[in-house]
Amino acid sequence: MLKIIIPSIMLLPLTWLSNNKNMWVNVTSYSFMISFLSVMILWQNDMNILNFSLLFSTDSLSSPLIILTTWLLPLMLLASQNHMKKESEQNKKVYVSMLVLLQILLIMTFSANELIMFYILFEATLIPTLIIITRWGNPTEQLNAGLYFLFYTLIGSIPLLIALIYIQNLTGTLNFLLFPLTFSPFNQTWSNNILWLACMMAFLI
């Protein structure tokens, strides 16, 4: 996963070190290169991961989500150039940096093997998203949209955090790779339905 995460991180210095005239071209071209590079992770066996890291890896479920994330950034940059014409050069670079940061966090979220790390990274994506909504959203609705977005996401994620703590206490681990080695299977009781609902609520919202 480092071959996608590290090039994505390099987009940040590229944004700020590029001159104002070529900033959009440089960042968009480089992000398209990352998009084409990410397509390679799609061809892998269902039972194999691309690396042996305990923290980050990809499988047949996370690979399409990562590829979608990497392709969204250059498309958003192309769609935003006309909208950002009247903004100052500083605001343009901050906007692009927020989009790049959002891509980095989403890639790390979809490739996380540890559930609590997945939760932290997923919640971290709220910060750049909230800044983009409240700063560059529709002026008449941006504050309300930002408040609703933050309220619903945080309310939905609290049951998920409680469920993750419960699973940690029950199994002793939150790592996907170590789940098959645990000796504490879930009991078939009505509380499992509540646990399932708590885990799904954040994603349903």
UniProtKB/TrEMBL annotation:
It comes from the Eukaryota. The chain crosses the membrane at residues 23-43, 49-73, 94-110, 116-133, 145-167. Keywords: Electron transport, Membrane, Mitochondrion, NAD, Respiratory chain, Translocase, Transmembrane, Transmembrane helix, Transport, Ubiquinone. It catalyses: a ubiquinone + NADH + 5 H(+)(in) = a ubiquinol + NAD(+) + 4 H(+)(out). Residues 1-109 form the NADH:ubiquinone oxidoreductase chain 4 N-terminal domain. GO terms for cellular component: mitochondrial membrane. One of its GO terms (molecular function) is NADH dehydrogenase activity. InterPro entries: NADH4_N (IPR000260), NADH_UbQ_OxRdtase (IPR003918), ND/Mrp_TM (IPR001750). One of its GO terms (biological process) is ATP synthesis coupled electron transport. It is a multi-pass membrane protein. It is found in: Mitochondrion membrane. The keyword ATP-binding does not apply. Residues 112-204 form the NADH:quinone oxidoreductase/Mrp antiporter transmembrane domain. Its EC number is 7.1.1.2. Core subunit of respiratory chain NADH dehydrogenase (Complex I) which is composed of 45 different subunits. Belongs to the complex I subunit 4 family. PANTHER family: NADH-UBIQUINONE OXIDOREDUCTASE CHAIN 4. Core subunit of the mitochondrial membrane respiratory chain NADH dehydrogenase (Complex I) which catalyzes electron transfer from NADH through the respiratory chain, using ubiquinone as an electron acceptor. Essential for the catalytic activity and assembly of complex I. This is NADH-ubiquinone oxidoreductase chain 4. It comes from Habromys simulatus (Jico deermouse).
